[in-house]
Amino acid sequence: MTDMLKPENRENLTNLTPADGRNPLYGMKVLELGAAWDMDGRKKSRFAAFADSARRSLMDEAHESDADAIAAMLVGSKPIKYVGLDSTDAFKNDPQGGAGSCTSSGDNLTGEGEGDDETLTFKLDEIPARVTRVLLTVGAFKKGADVRKIKNMIVTVYDSSDGQKTPVAFVEPTLLRPKRMLSVAVLERDPQGWTLRVVDDSFEFKAGDLDDFLTVAARM
User: pTM of this prediction?
Assistant: First the structure.
């Protein structure tokens, strides 16, 4: 986590909560959402990890220490695309356009390093007109991953309209008795443009099952 986003340095950023309702993004061209987290056990040394291999494999440990930022694009209640995991461009090669409008920095398998672990980027004016909602989630998608190992999660809202990644707000999802996936916020389209509404909830689905994830996400 960068120094700017540590608790003592957030006084100039808005802490968004569900009580804020819909936050207008009118005039914003590029919205970035950076998810950062710590995981129990992720700082274990390489030697210690090998010493622990009698109890479980390194791959199993990597899965348990993994989290994912995933966004689902919906037309009404119907999910049509997602970005995150293996999809870094939701509308790539879509015959109706929209390539590059909803992208992901890629799947970070470790949660290690400074700054945001995974970033979702939305060029709001370029998202296909048929998309009415975008659900933003962070959690334990893969089999073997454990959302209860997530610590110190923060989702930072950046206005990158001028090419500079400028933090303007943050969301701290609750980690109290979390289910498999944390539903962080929803982008919603209205006649004037897009709004951002914090959800701060969680839901269960079959681990590693994208269809089940999208089915449940469509109800949020």
Answer: 0.82
